[in-house]
Amino acid sequence: MAAGFDVGEFLEGFVDVLAALFEVGSAGGDLVQEVDELAFFAGFGVVHVDDGGDFVEGEAEAFAAEDEAQADAVARVVDADGAAALGGEQAAVLVEPDRSQRDVVLGGEFGDRPGLRGLVHAPSVLYVYVSVKHRECVMFELSEEHREFRQSVRDFAEAEIAPHAAEWDRKHYFPVEVVQKMGRLGLFGLTAPEEYGGSAGDFTSLCVAIEEISRVDQSMGITLEAAVGLGINPILTFGTDEQKQQWLPDLVAGRNLAGFGLTEPESGSDAGATKTRAVLDGDEWVIDGSKQFITNSGSSITSCVTVTARTGEKPDGRPEISTIIVPTGTAGFVAEAAYDKLGWHASDTHPLSFGGCRVPAGNLLGERGKGFAQFLATLDDGRVAIAAVALGCIRACLEMSVQYAGERKTFGVPIGQKQGVAFQISDLKVMADAAEMLVYRAAALKDAGASMADFKQAASVAKLYATESAVTATRIATQVFGGYGFMEEYPVTRFYRDAKILEIGEGTSEVQRMLIARSLGLPVE
């Protein structure tokens, strides 16, 4: 914060924003008198009320005021964790404008992305912590722009994917031409900066697109999810300017795809057990090893794969894991024959082998030894995105079941009039709504810049619930369809086969439960 901070302007803006958001009084009113009214919102998880003694004490870092008029305005840097971590990490400040009255206002930057908000009234030191962003996350609602975008993606999916999905599934065909149409629609560049051809949109928009594509075909849904989350994001987040300029324009446009080579024959959830090695030989990395289950890694438009490899050992003996970009066509790099999978027949998934594969030293992605941290950061977004795939699956099961139950008759009446069927379909509606809330709450947390701890927990919760619900939803839908649910001519059969992997990819259900438990302070192993 600069020394020329205008306390009066800050307070005036704070009151206006507070009044507008929560309708607790007219702008310019006595903020202290509004504490009780604000506390009402605590029941909704919007406002946190607590004893602020420990919060205030020891958190001060004074800055020099330019003149005597501001001498009593002391700004203090606030640790977001000390404020119950309801919002993201912010450059928030405590401002004490009147030492005699000792009304202390907690606030941050005003504008498009307001920071932390709150109020302390000493000597009781009761504080009300208000996070605008937390409120948006708890009470999320898709904007009109999101709803219009959803319809455009749905129209595309119904016209370009739904009529062909069964044939692609039957033939194990990866439809490159449709993937590139998705690129021309801008789906791969939704969250990418404009300088690389993206639209600089939000994560919520990406989840909307993934959900709608997955509603008609999970294979294409996971292709989009992996292309952005595992192909584009690692390079966008950790790459050098040169690497971004080299790879991102074609990836963002959907002209090319990229894979993320993490999983190995003997290491999946335990990424620290990576056996693939990369040795620096002069100005080249020499890579030896193998990867498996790598999406978008062997198609005709795959341009590169980012690969995790052991590049040495840390002082404590743990393996040093780094990430390296390997272009397709590099000698010694082979995408083996595609897997014959239970589901996702129209997605591109291969085992990869590396034998004396040489790439330039400059292909190191990010810092040496940071590959494990990069992998974890990549998975956080991916967990929410694959939960969006699951949400699309649940919605499809609900829609198919409602339609079939209204048309199929037994004993002269539609089966939807039978409690045994209707109640199961009711469960599908509950799953769809609950999964939607969890997926878009997690997406909203990311878009709002929430703390990493909050986002990680929300991502795991969304992933766990949505994916396990998707598996249950396909079982219910298959049961509703009866014998027809066992026939390949009905889409529900494909959805049934496709769903199981959702509980495994981007971190198994067991891993999600472990992460959630740890986030609650339970040190499980």
UniProtKB/TrEMBL annotation:
<dbReference type="Pfam" id="PF02771">
    <property type="entry name" value="Acyl-CoA_dh_N"/>
</dbReference>
<dbReference type="GO" id="GO:0003995">
    <property type="term" value="F:acyl-CoA dehydrogenase activity"/>
</dbReference>
<feature type="domain" description="Acyl-CoA oxidase/dehydrogenase middle">
    <location>
        <begin position="260"/>
        <end position="355"/>
    </location>
</feature>
<keyword id="KW-0285">Flavoprotein</keyword>
<feature type="domain" description="Acyl-CoA dehydrogenase/oxidase N-terminal">
    <location>
        <begin position="143"/>
        <end position="254"/>
    </location>
</feature>
<dbReference type="InterPro" id="IPR013786">
    <property type="entry name" value="AcylCoA_DH/ox_N"/>
</dbReference>
<protein>
    <submittedName>
        <fullName>Butyryl-CoA dehydrogenase</fullName>
    </submittedName>
</protein>
<dbReference type="Pfam" id="PF00441">
    <property type="entry name" value="Acyl-CoA_dh_1"/>
</dbReference>
<dbReference type="InterPro" id="IPR006091">
    <property type="entry name" value="Acyl-CoA_Oxase/DH_mid-dom"/>
</dbReference>
<dbReference type="InterPro" id="IPR046373">
    <property type="entry name" value="Acyl-CoA_Oxase/DH_mid-dom_sf"/>
</dbReference>
<dbReference type="InterPro" id="IPR006089">
    <property type="entry name" value="Acyl-CoA_DH_CS"/>
</dbReference>
<comment type="similarity">
    <text>Belongs to the acyl-CoA dehydrogenase family.</text>
</comment>
<dbReference type="InterPro" id="IPR036250">
    <property type="entry name" value="AcylCo_DH-like_C"/>
</dbReference>
<dbReference type="GO" id="GO:0050660">
    <property type="term" value="F:flavin adenine dinucleotide binding"/>
</dbReference>
<keyword id="KW-0274">FAD</keyword>
<dbReference type="InterPro" id="IPR009075">
    <property type="entry name" value="AcylCo_DH/oxidase_C"/>
</dbReference>
<dbReference type="Pfam" id="PF02770">
    <property type="entry name" value="Acyl-CoA_dh_M"/>
</dbReference>
<dbReference type="InterPro" id="IPR009100">
    <property type="entry name" value="AcylCoA_DH/oxidase_NM_dom_sf"/>
</dbReference>
<keyword id="KW-0560">Oxidoreductase</keyword>
<feature type="domain" description="Acyl-CoA dehydrogenase/oxidase C-terminal">
    <location>
        <begin position="369"/>
        <end position="520"/>
    </location>
</feature>
<dbReference type="InterPro" id="IPR037069">
    <property type="entry name" value="AcylCoA_DH/ox_N_sf"/>
</dbReference>
